[in-house]
Write a structure and sequence with these properties.
Blueprint lengths: L1 H55 L10 E6 L4 E19 L5 E16 L3 E11 L4 E10 L4 E7 L2 E19 L7 E15 L4 E11 L4 E10 L4 E6 L3 E7 L4 E8 L5 E4 L4 E7 L4 E10 L4 E9 L1
Antiparallel strand pairs: 1-2, 2-3, 2-4, 4-5, 6-7, 7-8, 7-9, 9-10, 11-12, 12-15, 13-14, 13-16, 16-17
């Protein structure tokens, strides 16, 4: 009996000890899991903190602006050039005390404007704005030496170009519209020049003229010109008479005929065509015919024949 009780007591002690060990093991496992969770949370929060600090160091406004430059084309000629990776809405420029000029950007990525500057100091202020309202500004000073002056005056189917310069003019160049391949070049080597330029084109055309002095200073002018055709005159002979034929698509107005030293015959004309027969004199015959059209543009023909 005592032996049985002793065995049961030992069993109870062993069971109690095993129960305590189980509790300790479970508690340790809980502490390990809790520790791992706390460590992960701390690491995450630390990583997030570093990420936030990194973002704080990034620039808030990483925005591009229009780029403004000036290209020097000649002593007094420049190009204003604005480029951007976004659409340009407008460009403003101001030279010295002149009024500000606005250029429509038309939402292009490049805007270019050609300008001719006056002699002396030119203070140029430029601003450009893109489609998002982001703008940039540019300012510079360009010195231009005094170059030749050009004046253009219409004279009876021609343009009179007068060019003057404080130093010798090297050359004068001119062409019509955009036909640069047929540019006429005149060598001058003087401080003043007068040139008569024939207007042989119908309708409205642009005369472009440039004068360059011996130091390379240039002056450019362009002028709209109402071009008209001159009347056409044809004079033939059969040995006994001169036969005059004149015509103009816009209409004739007057003809003047002079044979040798005789008095000039003047006739008013209506229509687009004129014909006349003039009897020859014995000996040398010198005939001068001058015909005017409705625009008062004239054409002259001179012929000589000995009978």
């Amino acid at each position: 009996m005592n032996q049985i009780l002793s065995v049961e007591i030992e069993k109870k002690k062993k069971n109690k000890k095993a129960s305590i060990n189980s509790i300790v093991i479970v508690f340790c496992i809980f502490l390990i899991i809790f520790g791992i969770g706390t460590t992960c949370t701390g690491a995450f929060l630390y990583s997030k903190s570093l990420s936030n600090k990194s973002n704080e160091n990034l620039p808030i406004n990483n925005i591009s602006k229009p780029i403004i430059t000036i290209e020097r084309q000649s002593s007094n000629g420049i190009n204003i050039v604005v480029t951007h990776d976004k659409e340009i809405t407008n460009v403003l420029y101001k030279i010295n005390n002149e009024d500000e000029v606005e250029i429509n950007g038309n939402n292009k990525l490049e805007v270019k404007e050609k300008l001719n500057l006056d002699a002396g100091e030119n203070i140029i202020k430029i601003s450009a704005k893109d489609i998002n309202g982001i703008s940039s500004e540019y300012e510079t000073i360009i010195e231009v030496e005094e170059g030749p002056t050009i004046s253009l005056t219409p004279i009876e189917g021609k343009i009179k170009a007068v060019t003057e310069s404080p130093i010798n003019i090297d050359k004068i160049e001119y062409y019509w519209d955009s036909d640069t391949e047929n540019t006429k070049v005149l060598t001058i080597n003087d401080t003043k020049n007068e040139t008569l330029i024939d207007v042989t084109l119908e309708g409205i055309h642009t005369l472009n003229i440039k004068a360059t002095d011996i130091n390379g200073n240039e002056t450019k002018r362009d002028q709209k010109v109402m071009g008209v055709n001159k009347p056409k005159i044809d004079v033939t002979t059969d040995g006994q008479s001169f036969f005059i034929k004149a015509e103009d698509s816009q209409g004739l107005s007057k003809v003047e005929i002079t044979l040798n030293s005789n008095e000039t015959i003047t006739e008013n004309i209506e229509g687009t065509e004129y014909k006349k027969k003039i009897t020859l004199e014995n000996g040398e015959n010198r005939l001068t015919v001058k015909v005017y059209n409705k625009d008062d543009v004239s054409q002259i023909s001179r012929v000589k024949f000995t009978k």
